[in-house]
Each structure stands twice: as structure tokens, then as C-alpha cells.
Amino acid sequence: MAEHAGNAGNAKSKPDPQSGGGGTSSTLGATVRTLAETLWFPAFFFTGFLVCYLLPFHNPVPHHVDVAVAGPSAAQLEQALEHKSPGAFDIHQVADARAAQDAVTDREATAAYVPGAEHPKLYVAKADGYSLESVLQKTFTGVAQQSGGRLQVHEAAPTAPGDGMGTGLFYLVLACTIPSYVSVMMLLRATTLGRRKKVVTLVSIGVVESVVAFLVARSMEVVPNEPLAIPLVFLMTQAVALTSYGLVPFCKQFFPGVAMGLFVLLSMPSSGGAIPVQMVPGFFRALHPIMPMGNLIEALRGLFYFDGKDVWQHTLVICAWVLAGVALIALGAWKERRAARKEAGAGAEEETAPAEPTAEPPVEDPSFELPQPSAVAPHHRRMGLQEPNLTGQVTDEHGRPLPGVAITVTGTHGRELVRAITDQHGEYAAAGLSDQFVNVIASSPDRLAAVARLQIRDGHPLRHDFRLTARPVPV
After folding, report:
1. Please, which residues have CB within 8 angstroms of residue 144's CB and are 6 or more apart in sequence?
2. 375-383 long-range CB contacts below 8 Å, 24 or more apart?
3. What gap in Å lies between CA 270 and CA 56, rounded to an integer?
4. 444-465 pLDDT, tens per residue?
């Protein structure tokens, strides 16, 4: 990229917008704006937990729990339960006790009741959640007592020995959901990795998470020995990771809120893992067939406890999320290439057009960017520090290094992104610059400034050297 020399002394000072008569109000407004931009995410998270966790979990009650009842007494029982608990149970009639039990194991009903004079029977599935099983037992114990019988409870789908409360699958899935999102957040800081390497890394993390999670859960006897669960868990990790990564160029500073809202605040309460889906409000019940976490839990329940019933149906929903993530990533890449071509064309027009007075750049709203652009030491690498994705050296006309030169990197609209000072070797380095065109300005009081227009790309560290000539001595 060609360098353009200019006279730094021609730059005019602009008045401080916060000085003068309106200084106090401007400062207050800037403070409020800074706080709003900084604290919106914790405020969003606080509100989300109140609405998405306290609301559905504070008083879980049954809603439209499907119960199969053997024999002609189903209609009478439905009327009695509807009078006592409106909307809590949906009763449908089956032929006999065998059909009632099959309705539970085939996942056509959540529970089944077989009336009897002395020993009425209730078939339940702890695999659907212990709290729901407890509500069913309490309700039908009362029904049996009213008819003079003593209820016999039969477990149609018992959980694994290490999952006494029936919530083990929720914590297994949770252990792979949040790290998948956090991995995306951390990889955004790795500006020396390109998009393809980041996707490969997310896939690799998903493989490790799914295998380790299954082996740990198996060692605790939380799940049965069904290795087919590993690819199911892997698909869910990719549904979360790839969709989150694909959302980044579209949501920008709001990405943390959107991703956490989808995969934490909405997905967990609607999953049916901690509290059965039949016991949460209607909004979360409606989300249950859509969100990846709920579909994985249902697929694992079917695989482990219901002879594979409906596993493929739920797997297809998870695959749809994976495909959506891939599509978003591809669309983001296309959007980036289109913007790069547009910027390159604009840069070529500027070089061929006659010089015009430079207007004051438009004001940009500050944004929450990951990673944060920053100056780093050119030759010092320590754990936890970002790798530079822009480096270079500044020398004089004889090739000697120039220390103390100011390096200013600005966006296409003139907003300063990072400022660095060359070291004793005349070298500079900057990290955390995201994909975009930038202007890099090298300036020193006793030398003519130089400007270069560069394209920053993830995974392609860039080096650009400057050679500054001395200012001519006035005659």
C-alpha cells in the first residue's frame, strides 16, 4: 500500500465539545451514555433472570398433562379433575391396563391411570421429571381414596441409578451449552485466527465436550451406557456455538445479549430439564419444541428410557439450528467480502480524485467490541495477552529506526481505534483490530507524517513499515 506524506502542521485544532457554557450538561450526558453502554448487559441479564427464571420456577403447577385412563370412566374422571384443577390434566381413554401402560412407554401420554375397586394403578415415568411424578402421585392418590381404593404406583420409565431426581440430563446438557457460547466469546479475541480456523476450533471443542461429558456422566451412573448420546450432544454444542458465532457480524455490540438470551435465558426454562415442561407457563411450553436444549433433552430421554421414541424428530430440530449457524457464518463472510470490495473501490476513487479539504469525520456511536483494540509491546509475548495483528517499523530516510513516533490507527470514518508509540527499535504493534479497512498514521514533530490505508483481516497478521523524512528547514 502506498504511503502518502503530508504536513502534520496543517492540522487545525478543534474546540473541545465539552468546554464552554454547555460543559456541565455535556459531561453529564456523556457520563449517562457511557454508563448505559457499559451496564446494559448486566441490566439485561438481571431482568432476564427475573422474567425467565423467577417467573416460571417460583410456583410450578401442571398444565395440560396428558393422562391415559383405561375403561369407560375416563369422561367422569376428566370432569372431576377439571373441576378441581382447571387445565391441569388432559384425559383420554384407552382400552385396558396394557394399553394404558403402553401409552406411557410409547410417549403418547405422560402418565396412565387404571381404575380399580381396591387397587387402582398409576403408571408414571421418572424420566420425565421427579417433580411431575410427585404431582401425579399426589393427585391420583386422592382420586383413588375417593373411590375407596389404595393407589399402586408403577414406574414405567425409571432413570439411571445415579439420577434419583430425574434432572441429571439437564445438568449434562447445561455443562455443554454455556461453554459452547463462552468459547465463541473467547475466540473473538483471537484476531490472529481466521474464520475457518475459528470454526474448526469450535467443532473440535464440541467433540471434546461431548465425549468428556458423556464419560463423566456415565462414571457417575447419571446416564445409561448408550454411546449414541455422544453425537447427539455434539450436534447441540454446534447448534449453540455456530449459531452464536454466526450472529456476531449482525448483532455486533448486542451479540452477548442476543446469544445469552437465546441459549441461557430462554433455552433453559423451556428445556423441561430442571422443571418439567408441563409445569412452566405457556410461553416457555411453546418454546420447548424449538430450542436446541429442550430438543436434546427429549432426544436423550427417548434414547435412554423410551426405546428410541421420537429421537430423530428432535435430532432434526437440532440439525436445523446447526444449518442456521452455518448459513449465518456464510452470510457474514459474504457481507464482509462485499464491504471490502466497496471500501477498496472507494479508496481507489479517493486516490484518483482531486484533493479536497478534509471535512470533520462524522461522529460514531461507541460500540461494545470484542476484542478491544490496544497497543502491545512488539516483542513481548505473555500468557493472557493478545497476539498483535498489526506490526511494523518506522525508520528515517537512511533506514535508521525512529523511536518515539506516534502511530495512530483510525477507522474509515476517522474514529481513533488505537494509539501506540514506537520503541527503541522503531517498532510498534497493535492487537484486537477487527476485520475492516483502517488508516494508519505515523507522526513525529520533526518529520513529515505518513499515512497508509490497510485492510485488517482475522487470521492474517499484517506488517506495514514507514519511512519518515525530515521536515524541510524554513528559509
Report:
1. 120, 150, 151
2. 375/407, 375/418, 375/419, 375/420, 375/421, 375/428, 375/429, 375/430, 375/431, 376/429, 376/430, 376/431, 377/423, 377/429, 378/423, 378/425, 378/427, 378/428, 378/429, 379/427
3. 9
4. 998 999 999 998 887 788 899 9
CA 228, CA 207: separation in Å to the nearest integer? Answer: 13
Q: Is-cis flag, bond preceding 371, omega within 30?
A: yes
User: Which of residues 425 and 371 earns the better pLDDT score?
Assistant: 425
Indicate the pairing of strand 462-463 with strand 390-395. Answer: parallel
pLDDT tens digits along 338-376: 877 776 666 555 555 444 443 333 333 333 345 677 888
Cell digits of residue 87: 387445565
- For residue 48, give the H/E element and its range: helix 23-49
Instruction: Count Cβ atoms within 10 A of the Cβ of residue 70 and give its class: 0-12 exposed, 13-18 middle, 19 or more buried.
Output: buried
* Backbone φ and ψ of 100, nearest 5°: -65, -45
Return the closest-CA partner of residue 431 out of 201, 193, 250, 197: 193
Identify residue 182 by its one-letter amino acid code: V
Report residue 376: phi and psi, to 5°: -130, 160
* DSSP 3-state of 386: coil
**Taking the CB of residue 119, how many other CB atoms lie within 10 A of it?**
11
Q: Let me know: does 439 contact 410? Beta carbons within 8 Å.
A: yes
- CA dist 29 → 23, 24, 33, 368 (Å): 10, 9, 6, 18
All three cell numbers of 291, joined, read 430450542
Name the helix (H) or strand (E) containing 453. Answer: strand 447-456
Provide Rg for the chain, Cα atoms: 32
